[in-house]
Amino acid sequence: MIRPSSFQDSIAAHLAPHGLHLRGTARFPQGEGGPLLDDGQAARAVLLIGNIGGSMWQAFGDWRAGQSDRGGRDPLDTWSKRIIGDLATKTGSTAYYPSDPPYHPFQRWAMSAEGLRASPLGILIHPEFGLWHGYRGALGFAEDISEPEKTPVSAPLHPCDDCKGRPCLAACPAGAVTAVRFDLAACRKYLASEPGREGCMGKGCLARAACPVGEGFRYPEDQLRFHMEALVPPSDQP
Ligand code: B12
Ligand code: SF4
Ligand code: SF4
């Protein structure tokens, strides 16, 4: 059964008050490795849900302010699960979350759904939103769903190909971002140092900030800090 696009419209309408967006559909022809649904069969379609720039930050902050424990240990995951889990129940689909191990290949799904490719930072770059977007969950369906709601783009699909000077590479004070790999150990070591705490930890990843694509979608300061703190294990934090 092909579900009508009004089905996606109703999902998008449910997500909109929370600042979340549909981010395309990954499709899996029969027998081609879709994730397992709650009933044990393989999904034929996975609808990706995420943030574009700071779109979710206000709604998440409002929810968090109303929680006696400020949302607990992983507040963004808890908030996402509340919204996306509710949607899974309403639509009879299976919810998947990016931070739940064993990890589902969210980036591979996003590459297939929106044709995105990785930047030198490991993050997928979008021609309009640049590095300022992420995934909060996905819904798996037993049947295909109609035409995906791709965000129309006017810019080239992989901005890194045409990027003059690749400023992200030079901006990383730890030399962790190179054209061939992202050096996590070097990044974390720098973040735990005095200059790192004042630099990237306080202001956000300098390499990400150096990218000229999608500047208008840059995350607000407190969102940047929130994500940076999540990157450093509690034992490394001062
Ligand atoms: C583990 C993980 C990390 C580890 C990376 C460890 C490693 N070397 O692989 C750490 C903790 C370092 C990390 C860091 C960050 N991550 Co991360 N991470 C993940 C997570 C939870 C699992 C990745 C995985 O193993 N997937 C399983 C494999 C099978 O899936 P896959 O799609 O086929 O695999 C791809 C990735 O593994 C990717 N990859 C390989 N090495 C690295 C290294 C980095 C740094 C990244 C980002 C990706 C990446 O390449 C694979 C092929 O495309 C994903 C969520 C998810 N479920 O995918 C988020 C995810 C990849 N991370 C994300 C982000 C945004 C970040 C940070 C920017 C967080 C921040 N500070 O804001 C940083 C990036 C560092 C920086 N330069 O600032 C986003 C990327 C969104 C996007 N636009 O692409 C994801 C999708 C989470 C989300 N909720 O959206 N991350
Ligand atoms: S600065 Fe250039 S190479 Fe680096 S992520 Fe942005 S577009 Fe890609
Ligand atoms: S957070 Fe700082 S050290 Fe880590 S990759 Fe970004 S610029 Fe480099």
* Number of strand elements: 6
Query: What's the mean pLDDT score?
Result: 90
Shape: globular
Structural class by sheet pairing and helices: alpha+beta
> How far apart are the termini?
54 Å
- Helix and strand run: HEEHHEHEEEHHHHHH
Query: Helix segment count?
Result: 10
Give the number of domains: 2
Whole-number radius of gyration?
18 Å
The hetero molecules present are: cobalamin, iron/sulfur cluster
Spans where pLDDT lies below 50 across 5 or more residues? none
Question: Share of helix among residues?
Answer: 25-40%
- Strand order across the biggest sheet? 1-2-6-3
- Name the beta content range: 5-15%
Most strands sheet: 4 strands, antiparallel
Describe this structure in words.
The chain is α+β, with helices and mostly antiparallel strands and 238 residues long. It has two domains: 135 residues, no CATH class; 77 residues, no CATH class. The chain is 36% helix and 13% strand. It contains ten helices and six strands. The strands form two sheets. Strands 1-2-6-3 form a four-stranded antiparallel beta sheet. A two-stranded antiparallel ribbon has the order 4-5. Strand 4 and strand 5 form a beta hairpin. The termini are far apart. One iron/sulfur cluster binds next to helix 5.
Q: What can be said about this structure in brief?
A:
With 238 residues, the chain is of the alpha+beta class. It contains ten helices and six strands, in the order H-E-E-H-H-E-H-E-E-E-H-H-H-H-H-H.
